[in-house]
Amino acid sequence: MPIKFSDVFYVYSPKTPFQFEALRGVNIDIKDHSFTAIVGHTGSGKSTLIQHINALLLPTSGTIQVDDMTITAKEKVKHIKKFRKHAGLVFQFPEYQLFEESVEKDVAFGPRNFGDDEKTALDKAHKALREVGIDDDLFKRSPFELSGGQRRRVAIAGIIAMEPKVLVLDEPTAGLDPRGAQEMMDLFDKIHQGGTTVVLVTHDMNIVLRYASDVIVMKDGAIVKVTDPLSLFEGDYEDYNLEIPNLYHFAKLLKNGGYQFDMRNIRTIEDMAKIIKGGYHRG
Amino acid sequence: MANIALGRYVPYNSFIHRLDPRLKLFGLIVLMVGIFIKFVNVPMNFIVYGLIFILIAMMMMVSRIKFKTLFKQLKALWIMITFLLIINTIVPNSGAIAFSIGSWNIYWNAIFQTLYIVIRLVLMIALTMVLTSTTRPLDLTYAIEWYLLPFKVIRFPTHEIAMTISIALRFIPTLLDETYRIMKAQASRGVDFVSGKLSEKVRAIVSLIVPLFISAFQRSEELANAMEARGYNPSGKRTRYRVMKWRVPDSIALIFVVGLLSGIIVLAALKVDFVAIIGNLF
Ligand SMILES: Nc1ncnc2c1ncn2[C@@H]1O[C@H](COP(=O)(O)OP(=O)(O)O)[C@@H](O)[C@H]1O
Ligand SMILES: [Mg+2]
User: Fold this and answer.
1) Ligand 1 atom with minimal separation from the A51 CA
2) To bridge A98 with a disulfide, which of A50, A143, A224, B187 should be the other Cys (CB 3.0-4.6 Å)?
């Protein structure tokens, strides 16, 4: 079952001088098994939006449907843990949420909270840690001895170990070096191939072009466009003050120089190279 | 969860907001002293408490503090009130008996003592709320620093103390945000901060405290480095962006609070009893 937002409003600190309407009538459908990117300027409400998916924030008005569960404003939410289990949310800079004495224990924390016994939880933890590329000999180490990049992987493993149906990521590549970011994205891509729905907040249009199946553009707490990456970058991305992906920029320069080719199937440098090599002539 | 920051500065522009922070701090102390003065008899005590409460309520209205926020802060006091009442009834007492439960006597004195403490607490909390919601924390530190200035003569590190306080105050909202953020991150991992067994609660708290401390230490180190990199010198002479200015309303308010305290002291010292006076009139 998809995730469906119907007319969702969210107000921070209502009825105080700090009152702020962060979501204004959001309607979206996030399809099952999609890789949905959410883009938009800082402060456009992306983080606020995704925190509704696992019921961390409850809408001021409107309804949210996740799987067969519904959240309605003003109605007390039952089974809140089911929401948390269904959608695993990785916050920005998740490395700051580690606290256990060993890496494996920290990753097993989530599964234990959802009722797994210690052995099952540790098994899940080990599986998740291997998936994110943490070596077995680090499992018993303190998370605070690891490097920043490793800690982030451990934190992400902590969510993956919960085996959520939906993985929600808030700017997971922020502050990583290009190679670390690439590895991180390949990991999410793999998880997505395995059947998990991925919702990704990002500022990096290269990532959007390369990985996303759907794109949601936000501005000032509202959804201004629901599309897919190719139509977005072929079309009106400039209207929303979005950057152009490097690949598209390059392609544009080529086209201006007289090259004619179809951009529709180009998502990676390799695709691009193939097409150029394939013998397109100067028009 | 979002209501942790009760009593924080609310940026309105009321008469009380505009008063000099030195005056407000002084007024707070003066009125608190007033709250602790005892009068000739029980009715008189309650009358003066009532008057002070009306005054504070007016100040709250002027500075646009909602009474709801005050009540929210008082919620936690219930446990204390019960506790005080129990202590006061256990401690041997004398005077008139209010009522008895079996052979257990509860004296009027015990009830009044408890009531006095509760009323004083409520008044003090309300007063402090007026101060903190109308004064920027930084302005408050400036005021504290100003009062500490005379101690410079005895080499008291006035400026360093003020700087420490203002940094601490500056980081309260940051730490609250951080707390909120980590709580949400752990809640995403299935932590239940509200219900759950005691052992689960302990784990929940640990999962919050450890990351919070780590990030606080990290922040303080970064701040120290940043200050040193910009050549911060604690003993250097400094100027201010916002200079405190004493204005006419401040003088009027000063006269008012001093007059009020004097009035209260006179009432207490002369053992004035309104009830008796009114009784004599008729
Ligand atoms: N706890 C909060 N209290 C009040 N306002 C907030 C809070 N959190 C976020 N906001 C405001 O809501 C808006 C949307 O924030 P956010 O969802 O974090 O945006 P994004 O993730 O797109 O940068 C911002 O203007 C932000 O200042
Ligand atoms: Mg954000």
Assistant:
1) 17
2) A143
B96 pLDDT more than 80: no
How many of the other CB atoms lie within 10 Å of CB of A228? 16
pLDDT at A67 (0 to 100)? 86
Which stretches of chain A score pLDDT less than 70?
A: 1, 279-283
What would the pLDDT profile of B167-221 be if each residue is shown by its tens digit? 888 888 889 899 999 999 999 999 988 877 888 888 899 999 999 999 999 999 9
One-letter identity of residue B271: K
Please return the burial class of B110, using the count of CB atoms within 10 Å of its CB with bins 0-12, 13-18 and 19+.
Answer: buried
CB spacing of B211 vs A98 below 8 angstroms: yes
Same domain flag for B42 and B144: yes
Asked if A58 and A221 count as a contact pair (C-beta separation under 8 A), the reply is: no
- A87-90 vs A166-170, strand pairing mode: parallel
Is B46 within a domain? yes
CB contact under 8 A, B188 and A96: no
Is any ligand 1 atom within 6 A of the Cβ of residue A99?
no
Q: Which of residues 211-270 of A touch B (CB under 8 A)?
A: none
Chain A residues with beta carbon closer than 8 angstroms to that of B184: 51, 56, 91
Query: Is A93 near chain B, with CB under 8 Å?
Result: no
Name every residue whose Cβ is closer than 8 Å to that of residue B263 and which is 6 or more positions away in sequence.
Answer: none
- B206 Cβ under 8 Å from any chain A Cβ: yes
3-state secondary structure A132-187: CCCCHHHCCCCHHHCCHHHHHHHHHHHHHCCCCCEEEEECCCCCCCHHHHHHHHHH
In the β-sheet with A87-90, what is the strand arrangement from edge to edge? A87-90, A166-170, A197-201, A35-40, A214-219, A222-227
pLDDT tens track for B6-30: 567 888 899 999 999 999 999 999 9
Nearest CA to B124 among B73, B64, B193, B185? Answer: B73
Q: Which class for A115: exposed (0-12), middle (13-18), buried (19 or more C-beta within 10 A)?
A: exposed
Amino acid at B235: S
Both structure tokens of A150: 């490793």
Residues B112 and B176 reside in one and the same domain: no
Count of alpha carbons within 13 angstroms of residue B140, beta-carbon side: 22
pLDDT more than 90, % of chain B: 41
CATH architecture, domain A3-240: 3-Layer(aba) Sandwich (3.40)
Distance, in Å, from the CA atom of A81 to the CA atom of A124, rounded to the nearest integer, reads 19
| The most confident of A27-31, A228-232, B41-45, B77-81, by mean pLDDT | A27-31
Residue B5 domain flag: no
Percentage of chain B beyond pLDDT 70 is: 97
**DSSP per residue, B108-151:** HHHHHHHHHHHHHHHHHHHHHHHHHHHS-HHHHHHHHHHHHGGG
> Domain count of chain B?
2
Answer whether A93 contacts ligand 1 (Cβ < 6 A): no
Please state, as a whole number, how many other Cβ atoms lie within 10 Å of the Cβ of residue A34.
19
Residue range(s) defining the domain that contains residue B225:
166-233
Please tell me whether residues B153 and B253 are part of one structural domain: yes
Q: pTM (2 decimals)?
A: 0.79
